[in-house]
Each structure stands twice: as C-alpha cells, then as structure tokens.
Amino acid sequence: MRLKTTFVLFLCLSFLSIPAVFSQAKQGRVLPSEGHKYLDTRCTDYYSRPVLHVRNDSLNDVAFSDLMRHRGVPMGPMTILNIRRLTKLSKASQLFFIAHECGHHVLGHLYFRQPGQMAEQEADCYAIRSLIRSGVFTLNDVADVQEDMRKYAQPSRMHISGEERALALIDCME
Ligand SMILES: [Zn+2]
After folding, report:
1. Domain count of the fold of the chain
2. CA of 5 to the centre of ligand 1 (A)
3. Ligand 1 geometric centre to CA of 43 (Å)
4. Is the pLDDT of residue 4 over 90?
5. Residue 31 Cα, ligand 1 centroid: separation in angstroms?
6. Within a domain: residue 2?
7. Is the confidence at residue 1, as pLDDT, over 50?
8. Residues by chain with Cβ below 5 Å of ion ligand 1
9. Residue 20 above 70 pLDDT?
10. Is residue 4 part of a domain?
11. Over the stretch 24-40, which tens digit does the pLDDT of each residue have?
12. 94 alpha carbon – ligand 1 mean position (Å)
C-alpha cells in the first residue's frame, strides 16, 4: 500500500515537472498565419496517435518532425513549426510542408526509417497525394509549391535539389 502511494506520488511529480513544451503543445491546434486566416495542423501518426504541434521560430528549417521525450522516454509524436519562416511561403507551400511533416508521422518514419533523401521523397509524395486526393490542392497549388521549392529549397544530405524536388512532385502524382 505504501509502495503504491509512493508510486502514485512519483507519477504526479513526474507530470508536474514535464517541460513547458508539453503544456504549450496542443493536438490539432489551428495556428494563426499572417495573410491567411488559419493553418490546420491536424495529424495522427502510424499508431493513430495525435501529433502535437509546437511553434519554435528559432528552428533552422520551416518544420521538423520528432518524438517528444521526457527523461529519455518517448511521449508521443510532435511537429515543430517555424511559423515565421512558414508564413513567408505561399499558402499552398504552408499546407504542403505541414502535410509533409504529417507524412513522416503517418508513414512511421520516426520508428522504421533512417532519415535521408528516400524518407524525404516519401513524405513529399504523401503530402502532394493527400492534398490532391482530399480536394485541398489544385494543379495551381502544386505549381506554387514547385516555385517555392525552386526558390528556397537547398540540396543537402537529406534533400535533393529544389529543382529535382519540384520535378519529383509530378512523378508522385502519376
Ligand atoms: Zn521531411
């Protein structure tokens, strides 16, 4: 009995000390976006767990997917969004990059895949296909995303060049 009480007390204290990021993050939070009313960020991952969205404008990218950890223990999927950078892109690109991060979660990349160009390509394809299938994207929106990719996307260990990435979007749609 005493052990049980101690355990419950330990649990309560653990939750109390969870970093602020957990209390700030809200699943499906609709983020205000400059020039556009809202960005719908709802997403569930490979295990149907809700993805939390956290704003962090010091992120060195527009968005990033990760697993939240508390003292090394995975606490659930999360997408970090740099809203300052994101809102500089076209509305179509904002939706695309949020869907791209959702793709990493839906496809289970954080559990089963090494990060790299292959995973990034899969997330791009997931994003474009789901946005078209759901009727959110028209071909004009795809063109807007391609334009932003050509302008801003840099080739890296993780990503092919912006031009190649823009062209690959068309292959995803076929
Ligand atoms: Zn990615």
Report:
1. 1
2. 44
3. 15
4. no
5. 20
6. no
7. no
8. 120, 123
9. no
10. no
11. 344 444 454 444 444 55
12. 13
